[in-house]
Amino acid sequence: PLLNFAQKKDFPDYRTKKESFAKVYDKSIRADLGVFTIGGVEESIGKLPLKKLSPHSYTRNLMSFKGDNIEVTVTTGQFEPAGRKLTKVEDYLVKIDGKPFYGDYGEMPATAIKSVIVLINKDTVVIPPVAYADLFNLNFTYKDKAGTERTANGVFFSKDSKRIYIYLQSRDENGSYEVTWIVEDKKYLRRVLDWGFTQ
Q: From residue 191, how far is each of 51, 194, 198 by CA, in Å?
């Protein structure tokens, strides 16, 4: 698979690092993200882990987390190219609806995130579609070298319990990505997105 990727022609990469861990300037959020993200791994040394909710259940198209007074469900479905503006350079898809995208960049996506539902104390926290509209081919799990299915995904809680981090890591041969949606005081704050690491 790596050989095939190397043989691809050069085509422009419009993806940016403006939402990456390196661009997080809030010290407390940065400290929390450093505990569990690949982007922050260099800053994780010596840090205590955050309280984490591991997945409660998952299928190919759904992953849910359930804990005390919190429920998070992420659902994917088939990518529908009809009605979308697809920008190509030669045979490579570089933008969808005028924006670069993540997940098998250059290829037509097979799946898209359909919904992110967050309930805290039975209150719905709206994660706006713009927070996931450019994320495709999300793999909830991956196989380790021994062939065991694993996931790095989780819901993490800041030590002061004000913030919740919904973390998804999508690994694939053509460039993985990780996204963290940050919820503070029951409101969506922002996302942190890193990409470009391999499996």
A: 19, 10, 21
